[in-house]
Amino acid sequence: MGLFTKDIKTMDDLLLHGVQDIYYAEQQIMKALPKMIDLATNRDLATGLRSHLEETQKQVERLQKVFAKLGKEPSGTQCPAIDGIIKEANETAGEIEDKAVLDAAIVANSQAVEHYEMCRYGTLIAWAEELGHQDIVRFLTTNLNEEKAANTKLNTIALRKDVNKKASTAA
């Protein structure tokens, strides 16, 4: 099932496709986070990423419950958007030598991921509400709230934990 193909005939089909998309995205994020954790030199950043990896695992479990409520087996559909964001993050990380600058890039790339997820979850919540799927709205809302909190933590790390400041003074 591809986005905007004839496989999507109804709003329910669109909702399912969106859930499959974010399910795939969360799985790809779980694969990408350990590398970002290993590259991070700022302790607060590494700790925050480790914490979000644990949250992401719980988010996948909630999405599995969403599939169950929809009467579907959990499955992902390839998401070129998240693949592109992760690819760009990996390429950027490979181009940066200075560890302080790399930490700032990790924060920025992580926020790109968070913003994508916030967008997806917000849309899925709106669609689920419109379709009367209140039984899955709470799972999606919990995931959305965790993504928002992760983004806020990344802002704090960048601005108050001096990641950006240290990067700006790198030689």
CATH architecture: Up-down Bundle
Low-confidence stretches: none
Please report the number of helical segments. Answer: 6
Number of strands: 0
Q: How big a fraction of the residues is strand?
A: under 5%
Can you write the helix and strand succession as a string?
HHHHHH
Structural class: mainly alpha
CATH class: Mainly Alpha
Radius of gyration: 17 Å
Measured between the Cα atoms of the first and last residue, the distance is 49 Å
Total domains, how many? 1
* Bulk shape: elongated
How helical, in percent, are the residues? over 70%
CATH topology: the name is: Ferritin
Summarize model confidence as the mean pLDDT. Answer: 93
CATH superfamily: Ferritin, core subunit, four-helix bundle
Largest sheet: none
Coiled coil: 46-73
Protein name: Ferritin-like domain-containing protein
Keywords: Coiled coil, Plasmid
Pfam families: DUF892 (PF05974)
Give a verbal description of the structure.
With 171 residues, this protein is mainly alpha-helical. The protein has one domain (11-168): Ferritin, core subunit, four-helix bundle (Ferritin, Up-down Bundle). The protein has six helices and no strands. Helix 2 runs antiparallel to helix 5 (134-159). The longest helix is centred in the C-terminal third of the chain and has 32 residues, at 99-130. The chain is elongated and about 55 Å long.
How are the elements arranged and paired?
Layout: H1 11-39, H2 43-69, H3 80-95, H4 99-130, H5 134-159, H6 163-168
Tell me briefly what this model is.
With 171 residues, the chain is mainly α.
